[in-house]
């Protein structure tokens, strides 16, 4: 399916990659490298699991159509520059518009959200600010800075935390766990020996064992809360 166009709440529009025709929806939230081959592959993956999956371009306000990788220093510099200029508030608003668009495409029973890295933090914000039926965040960066929103979580949330995450220090991880552990809707899976992006196939810190464990738990989580 070709990319679709979604109207932003504050004017303008952005593109999104769509895959699948399942009866439940999945919003796939990008890393700092844009809607690249990795994210399109993940979107196709969730489509293969029976979801209508969609991955919106969240960097469109800075530069539409970003598709870079984690393979060169030049791309890393560009990715971090885009990340520094990114508005989490606007990005979350775009994700909420994406959920509305997805629900309007066909009669979907439920819609979930899954994000990685930058998207991991945004998946948390979708759990606090949107009406998604379930959310999963992989190694989200900066969740500790938004824990004042934790009381707004009313739907299931699963977080995968890398114990040796170079972007999320131990004290930040401890704050997240302490703030969220009392909410029965929140599950936290920790991977003590893994670094950031341990589930990114082909990445520097990829761990096949941990990625397999995390992905299996995620699949079961969404099957329970979106298809059950």
TrEMBL record:
GO terms for molecular function: hydrolase activity. InterPro entries: AB_hydrolase_fold, Dienelactn_hydro, Dienelactone_hydrolase-like. It comes from the Bacteria. Pfam families: DLH. This is Carboxymethylenebutenolidase. Residues 21-225 form the Dienelactone hydrolase domain.
């Amino acid at each position: 399916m070709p990319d679709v166009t979604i109207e932003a709440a504050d004017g303008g529009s952005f593109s999104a990659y769509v895959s699948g025709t399942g009866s439940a929806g999945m919003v796939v939230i990008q890393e700092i490298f844009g809607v690249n081959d990795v994210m399109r592959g993940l979107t196709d993956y969730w489509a293969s699991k029976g979801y209508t999956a969609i991955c919106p371009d969240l960097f469109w306000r800075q530069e539409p159509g970003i598709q870079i990788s984690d393979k060169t220093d030049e791309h890393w510099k560009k990715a971090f520059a885009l990340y520094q200029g990114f508005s989490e508030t606007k990005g979350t608003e775009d994700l909420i518009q994406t959920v509305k668009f997805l629900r309007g495409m066909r009669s979907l029973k439920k819609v979930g959200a899954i994000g990685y890295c930058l998207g991991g933090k945004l998946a948390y914000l979708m759990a606090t600010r949107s009406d998604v039926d379930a959310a999963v965040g992989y190694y989200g960066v900066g969740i500790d800075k938004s824990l004042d929103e934790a009381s707004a979580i009313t739907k299931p949330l699963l977080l995968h935390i890398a114990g040796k995450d170079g972007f999320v220090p131990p004290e930040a991880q401890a704050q997240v766990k302490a703030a969220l552990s009392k909410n029965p809707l929140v599950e936290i899976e920790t991977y003590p020996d893994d670094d950031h992006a341990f589930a990114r196939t082909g990445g520097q810190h990829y761990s096949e064992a941990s990625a397999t464990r995390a992905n299996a738990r995620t699949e079961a989580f969404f099957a329970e809360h979106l298809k059950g």
